[in-house]
Amino acid sequence: MSWVSFNIFRTLGFPDTLQLKPEDVFKYREEISTAEWVLFPEYWQLNALIYGLQARVFPSEASYRLGHNKIEMTRAFELVAPANTPYTRILANTPENAEHLWNEMDQPFVAKLPKSSQGNGVWLIESLQDWRDYLSKSDVLYVQEQLPIDRDIRIVVIGDQVITAYWRLQAAQGFYNNVSKGGLIERSPVPEAAVALALHLARTLDINHAGFDIAMVGGHPYVLEFNRLFGNQGIEGGDAKLREVIQDYLQRQSTPTGPNFPSRPSSPRRRFNRAA
Fold this sequence. Notes:
Blueprint: E1 3-5, H1 8-11, E2 17-19, H2 29-34, E3 37-39, H3 46-52, E4 57-58, H4 61-67, H5 70-80, E5 88-92, H6 95-104, E6 109-112, E7 122-125, H7 128-135, E8 140-145, E9 151-158, E10 161-169, E11 184-186, E12 190-191, H8 192-205, E13 209-217, E14 220-227, H9 238-254, E15 274-275
Parallel strand pairs: 1-2, 1-3, 3-4, 12-15
Antiparallel strand pairs: 5-8, 6-7, 6-8, 9-10, 9-13, 10-11, 13-14
């Protein structure tokens, strides 16, 4: 096993792993090109690593590409799970489009910046002044219906399995469910439909390291977004648990298979409560 990591905080203690700073990518070209896995590179390194060195990266290329931009993420969701994607409109920021969307969307509605995370770059548009403020912040108009919810579900997928799922209750100031914005964690049972949707998206889109945010309206799940790099506040065991699961997945993916190399049994999977 020989791995290279560009994020020591997420791979601390990984055995046989060369820990590098992102700017070392050119200095250690040979070591990177012969590594089994290149772990947690920066987004700007991705093309050079994948196309220049044919490196095998984790998280997957799809996790990077789709997780980097909410527009690309939403378009992928609309193709593979249209019934589970909130109504969304994405248009260039022109006076005509701004007026059209203001008249089209039921109010209040949600507006987002294409590149943001942890609840940043997301606004609830309740007035014309809110809308005008948003128009000054983005070249692209990304608007979405507001779902009638006061909580959502964070579902963490690593590799090919869900490692935790929990509710995030709305922050005291309202609207935001993100823990970084004051949202609260609740560990009551999570609907099976939400877990199934997250796994469907992960497997269909080849996303192998993500925190999916799923909202339930009645008994129907809607995907809001996923974060490629997510916090560990709601994960029992925290960073240590994440590192254990990541190592297990990478080792299983590196194990030869075929008639002379039977697949290694997967590690026992952690169980968590789910509602019927």
